[in-house]
Amino acid sequence: MTRLASHGLAVDLPAGWDGRIGRRLSPFGTAAAPHAVMHLANFPLPEERGDFGSGAVTVMGPGGVLVVLFEHDSRSASTALFQDEGVPRRFRPEQFGRNQLQRAIGNQVGAQFFAQEQGRAFCLYVVLGSGRRRRALATTAERVLATLDISPNAPGRLRFFS
């Protein structure tokens, strides 16, 4: 296992998983502050990919799992959209569907969750390579997310993708 940690996020990657944590300027709202973006996959991540996995989902096979944790402005943590406490680490297979995807590809299914943790607002987006295998693939995502640690944002410690 490899520990991946940056920008107040940390997770253990099992063998065969790829992951990146960086910062992007938020396209939402008027704030231009950078926010953390974490991409985790049980397949090699392409270098060119969008914040919510475009580019990665097109190369993902039926056994693929893509986990995206996208941070929103911390002021959003107190809004109704982010009212749930704690980024989910467990799922029910029926939470995944084609209507949850940013873009429907093959038999992929996805789920999207909004929550706040440690005073930070997040969208968790999980894509599974096959709807028929959603139970097993969701369990695979759960195993990785069980190791997720989120720290409060530390002012003055912002770094950008290089």
Describe the structure.
Helix content is 7%, strand content 33%. By secondary structure, the protein is mainly beta. The chain has 1 helix and 8 strands, in the order βββββββαβ. The chain has one domain (2-130, 145-150). Strand 6 (109-117) and strand 7 (120-128) form a beta hairpin. The strands form 2 sheets. The chain has a 5-stranded antiparallel β-sheet, covered by helices on one side. A 3-stranded antiparallel β-sheet has the order 1-2-8, with no helix packed on it. It is globular and about 35 Å long.
Alpha carbon gyration radius: 15 Å
Q: How do the helices and strands follow one another from N- to C-terminus?
A: EEEEEEEHE
What's the count of strands?
Answer: 8
Distance between the termini: 25 Å
How much strand content do the residues show? 25-35%
Continuous helix count: 1
- Output the structural class: mainly beta
Strand order of the largest sheet: 3-4-5-7-6
Domain count, please report it: 1
Overall outline:
globular
User: Taking all residues together, what is the mean pLDDT?
Assistant: 89
State the low-pLDDT regions, or none. 155-162
Largest sheet: 5 strands, antiparallel
The portion of residues assigned to helices is under 10%
